[in-house]
Amino acid sequence: MPNPSSTLLVYWLFTALISIFPTRSRIEESSNGLADSLPLLKLLFTIVAFIVFGLENIPKANRHSLTRPNVEKMVQANPSPEPYSNLFSRFTFFWVAPLLNKGKKKTLRMDDIWNLHPKMLSYPVLLSTQARMDADEAIARQKAQQLADKTGAPGKAITVQPHKARLFSVLVYTVGWAYMSAVIPCLMYTAATYVRPVLFSNLIAFMASYTQASKERGLEPEPAWKGYGLMLGVLTSSVLGGLFNAQYQNVCFQCSIRARGVFNSLIYRKALRLSSTNKQEGMGSIVNHMSSDVDNVLKLFMIIHLLWSSIIGVAIALALLYQQVKYAMFASLGVTVGIAILSGFISSKTGTAYKQMAAKNDLRMKLVNELVNHIKSIKLYAWERYFVHQVSEARLKQLNALRWFNIIITIGVALFNVTVPLSSFAALTVYSTVATPDAPLDIQRIFTCITLLNMLGTPVNNITSSINSIISGHVSYVRLRDFFDSEEINAANVERHPDASKFEIAYEVTNGTFGWYSPEAIKAMEAKREKEAKEAKKNANLATKVDPTQDEKMTLDEKSAGGGHETSTMESTASDEKVDESKKGDKATRDTLGPVLRNISFIIKRGSLTAVIGRVGEGKSSLVGALLGEMHKYSGSVRAYGSLAYVAQSAWILNDTVRNNILFGREYKKERYLQVVKACALVPDLKMLVNGDKTLIGEKGINLSGGQKQRISIARAVYANADVYIFDDPLSAVDAHVDRHIFEEAITKILAHKTRILVTNGAIHLKQVNQIIVVKQGRISQDGSYDDLIQDTEGDLHRMIAESKIVVSKEYDDEAEDDQASGADEEVIAEIVEGGQKRPVELTKRTTFRKQKSTKMEEDLDLEEHNEVDAEVKSEGRVDWSVYKYYFHSMGLPVFFLFVFVCLAYLGTSVGTQIWLQIWGNENYKVTPSHSNQYWILAYLAWIFATAFALVLAIVTFFLVLARKASKSLHASMVAPLIRSPMSFFETTSSGKIINRFAHDFATIDVTIPFSLLTIFLNFMVNLMQVGFCIAATSYFLILMVPLCACYYYLGAYYLVSSREIKRLDSAARSPMYAHFGETLNGLVTIRGYGDADRFATRATKLLDQSQQVYYLTNTTQRWLQVMLEILNDVVMAFIALMAVVLRNSAIAGVFAIVLSEISYFTTNVQAVMTSVCNLETTIVSVERVKEYSELPSEALDVIPDSKTDKNWPQQGKLEFQNFSTRYREGLDLVLSNVDLTVRAGERVGVVGRTGAGKSSVTMALFRIIEAAEGKILIDGVDTSTVGLHELRSRLTIIPQDPFLFGGTIRVNLDPFDQHQDADLWAALEAASLKPYISSLPEGLHTVIENGGENMSLGQRQLMNLARAMLNKNTKVLCLDEATAAIDIETDNAIQRALRRSFQGCTVLTIAHRINTIMDSDRILVLERGKVAEYDKPATLLANPNSIFYSLVNSHDKQERK
Asked: With a threshold of 0.90, does the pTM exceed it?
């Protein structure tokens, strides 16, 4: 329905209203009344005008004739009725009533929420803003070019950073016209507000004219019509003021929500451009940018209008005050200005306090983000207590900053509340000394003065608060500006040519030198280090840092590492030579602040298969970063031809279905999709999943194994049908036979005509590639074909193959493959055969791991979608009283009752102050007052200070004691149960939902809820006082109280039901947005590699608008409530004014003077109480959500009380699985079924099996990450289910599949509990082959690890985990879960030797895809579908050609020969 014409509505309304007065006059003037034609016509015209006005309000049918041609209307699923509502519906916000009615009848769902108003959608506003920013950039570039031409450098390329544009001014320009429209309602609201004290003064004078004192002075009573006219004036000004105020706030909010969409969109798009070394901003900081910082900046939209209108208000109030007390006004003005200056000084500290609080909050959120994202590793290492302590410490620092912030706010509130009393005291004191009999200090003058000073206090407070908001907004703006100015990926790093068909090459790098940090960032970090070094010299307690100039000598470090340890002398000669060579390398190539790759030059032809090989830390991943444009290019050139697909070393999985993860936004083509799924060996996995390829994958692929995630990642790339493919060692995460299958079916078959770059740590597949690039110490040491490079016996390729004991035959006869194994294969098998007998064996393929293929595979995959990960739980209905009880209990009830007592004291002193003023005013009517002015003035001053003291004590008690204790208690009650929750909770709950509770919900608990509660208590006390005075003025007010209370109750209940659900939906709608942002940051390189940044940005915009549509309705319902409350309160005000006129002969003027001076704020106070109650009911949901997490089901006990377990347990390391079965969570199939085996003490057992066979589940069960469904596990005869989890996990050692590093120094990552000396750490790093790399870093062990270890390669992160395990040499059980998957074979062999030396006599379970890693195990455990398929010595299994293990070795050997 088209909306009615606003012009016609206004015209007919005013026509009808204005015609009433001439019609009445015509009827009264006519002797015959309506019998005459003219009065009758006037009456009929008035009636018709009202009828037309009513008809115009009725929605009309669609009038296509009025539709603009060639204009397409936006189609929305659930459009908002706002654009189609009439003027008065929009003016009173009644257009939202249908939603409130629906909320009254049923629980609101997201489907019930209207779409966002088309004018407030984020993307259109973003486009206009971006256009303005581009225009500013073009102008700046033009001016810079003109300046360069004038200075004698014509033609010189000029670079202007787009983010240097003035974002705020551009944003204001974007929404400027709509924002300026708020000037009109703001002016009208100001006029309506300041005409009210004039009307009140005249009304008090009207009543005073009927008092006995006036009669004694011979004054004539004023006519009654004047009183009724004043009453109508009060009503009209109040109604119009309320409506204009609501409109002014709504216009500002609409502008702010449009600006919010632009800011958040710009932040997200900026995040998509962040450089790899700048992603330490982290999820927590970006969430804070999007929530706190953006909101603080957007408050300025309201503040700007509030500031200028408050200045006008101050001028009007001073002018009116001058009329009452003449020059005594300057005394009150002096007090007001003095307090304002003091408040301004206090406010200047607000920005600093807020900045400190925001910084502490960022630190806390960073820790929470690490805790949530690495919870599995934290549990495996038994580090829960450490992280709880760290988060608690960060929380305490945040609360200390919040306490200082609250102290400043308390002082500001106290100053604001004493401004009016002290100003009144100054004005009345001065005027009482100069008052004349003709203008005495009577009741009218006293309470009119107080009313004006109250009104003066409001704009002065607005100005002060505006300064606070401007300071806070500036701090947030600077934070946002710094974020927008932070380092980005330079598009010029890679010169891209989209059309690959025109070129014969795919990649060309010429004389390239690359590093992870830009020159500017290096200078900044060096300056920071110099500053820290100077500070370190002043503090003798700081640990001595390694001098960067001594990196090459490493004398001190070698002595520290070698002292007292034999490991430094145990390395083989080959390993020693490798370490020496790495030490001799150019230091600059190893220093992460300088160039990492130097003088890189190579060409990759179109359609070729290229392998990039090298040891861990040599620069392979850096080379990939250079090809992707992720590294800074210092010199040289990189040219890429054609589209790109990228597979990261660590699989990045979306929280979406398997199919959507593979499609990755591409069109679904059934034939190609099925071909890709088969080629990537995903068919058996999809058949095992509950809903096939429509099974929803949990966040980060939590319900998939590492191999499954990586194969989905490979399938995504293969399906993309790009021109160039970069595989960053993804095959290391899969089994050997799956590796071979993917390489043959996907990489060399489906992608046969594509350009493929395969980064690998091993020598497998090298013979099948066209080109090999060997990277060593940041340089290309060899580049050519396999046949050419292998002939160079001194070359790195030959050395790597020889040292990893892989003999690759130049001549390989495929026909002889089944008859006999070539030399290396025969030797490997024969050496392990029992008795050392060498004999040829028949190599047959085992089909055990293959499921029978369906002839209708596509039908098996086409299943109904089912969300396997539960959506966020959203409570419905009224918040239970137990939540309030929970919150108040967290405050501490004794102190809370003390606070209530102080509030009552504040009420008593406030009432006493008003009564004292009334008595003083009445005293001045007497000819001979009973007391001097000094008596009244000093007593009034005492009442003022008593009231102020009670108020300050109430605020201090509430903020600094009650609210702080509640915030601390609630955070602690949530962190501990969260970290103790079983892994099944984290597998079904996205990190965005958890982080949202720590970010948004605790921001609400820390600030919003305490302010709402304090507002309720204090304003309720003031309302009690005002109602008491109203009843004292006229008992008829009791008659009005009954319907009035009923209306307030009904209105609050009517609003609260829907508002509560909308608020809950608002909180829930933020989670997908934050989760999407988190996913984007985790997969930033992959997204940019595929060139899908725009698609992800569009998705983010949709989620943002979904969040904003709920947020907008939250504000709209509040404005509706505001209008409704204003109408009710206007009725109260009109009733009091009417009673003052009607009871003018008998009423007590002094009491009515008090009421009229206070009644104008009765509306404000009632609205504040109602709004705060509703806000509390909606924001208390945050406490409810925290309470929900505090009651999460917990794992088993950390420590068993009175445990009888030996302190040295386990002493031997014997493992027994007795009929053991387990599942990951209730409702899922068993992942281990009836496992029955024994591992003898000190035995080394290799665990093999297909991806998803249950290998990692063995370690998860051993560490009780998943509990037994049946049977038990014994360690040295002790049932692990009878041992506390902390006790169990801390006495076992694991190197997990996913390397885990957290933000902090290298030392803290290795030894968070500070149990080892530096010498122990260096020895562990040396054993893990990391010492040369760590030694080369300027800060050595004190180097800070960024954002989960992003400044290290995946292989280096795995080596860090190995070094961590090396420190725990007293362990008797060690689990290696793909610990060396991302490490080259050469380093792997060295690590295996070091492990054997360091963990002699230790029981070792090794899960590995590389067969050579577990070939020296004492026994081999083969798992299939969660069951023990084979368990015996390697020689015994290899002696049986039909064994699964035999087929695996056979498959692996064939793969190595190729």
From this structure: no
